[in-house]
Amino acid sequence: MTSPFEIGIFTFGELSRTAGGAFTPPAARLEQLLEWARVADQAGLDVFGVGEHHRPDFAVSSPQMVLAAAARETERIRLTSTVTVLSSADPVRLHEEFATLDLLSAGRAEITAGRGAYVESFPLFGQDLARYDEYFDDRLDLLLAARENAEVTWSGTTRAPLQDAGVHPRPLQEKLPVWIAVGGTPASAARAGTLGLPMYLAILGAPARFTALADLHRKAASAAGHPAPRLGVTSHFHAAETTQAARDAFFPHYAAYFAENMPRGGRLDRDTFDAWANPGGALFAGSPAEIVDKILWEHELLGHTRFLAQVGLGGIGQRETLRSIELLATEVLPEVRRVIG
């Protein structure tokens, strides 16, 4: 049984730059991520996620391997990819790996399937970028087929067909949960709803403009005869005891992250940062009370039942990140659940 409202953390494992311009060591970053998982689990958060990139400025190319390590460091927190770049993955192998993760974690594995914000995996794995959408549609169909049955008969356009092929091991859960990550396209939201799949919205702009996607997701599910699927929201995040402390500590790191990693990059000034973090903006940077208010406001807009906070952005210190995670678990989560019920 899921909680009425779930809150968790996730990361892409991005690497910050040293004073000399080199990237911080990936091994050290991975150790930090595992500590985040342990603290989140012990403090009572619901979900821990890691994303997939194939670039020198990220430490995680295989979420399932990092999550398997986290499975042995934690006891109850759910473990998800955020996201798996399904278009350039083998869905059969992917299901086998996450089923193994599910067994190692006593039934806590989830997959979040998406196209990914970057396309470096396509040339890396010898795929034609012109078939970007075709790959995702085809491989989502195969992933769901492998989820449904241990013996799979399937044919598509992007890989060889299967005839009574065994997909093993099977997960401890009856079926692996599969979420769809949506950046902002109506077609993606409608597809998730039509398939009856839960969906994440990555909210980096004005939250109000995502209400149409949330409504489309639910309407498409209803039209296809599915119960209303779950909706999750992901956002950039940092919390401290006071709003001023959170913003002062986070701003220089977030500005560096913005310049390095955001699709359009550029310089982020403090006034813009504060505007994004104010009520009505997409950025979660403030006191626990302010974070609670923003989650509840977005819940009224979107009706979501899971919030994932992207933590540790821009090389902010481990101590500050761990404290931010603890505040999310001990002060934000209980209050959100109390209000929503």
UniProtKB/TrEMBL annotation:
Oxidoreductase among keywords: yes
Entry-linked Pfam families: Bac_luciferase
Gene3D superfamilies tied to this protein: Luciferase-like domain (3.20.20.30)
GO cellular component, one term: cytosol
Domain of life: Bacteria
Keyword Oxidoreductase: yes
Span of domain Luciferase-like: 7-299
Example of a GO MF term: monooxygenase activity
InterPro entries in the cross-refs: Bact_Lucif_Oxidored, Luciferase-like_dom, Luciferase-like_sf
Keyword line: Monooxygenase, Oxidoreductase
The protein's name: LLM class flavin-dependent oxidoreductase
Lineage: Bacteria, Bacillati, Actinomycetota, Actinomycetes, Micrococcales
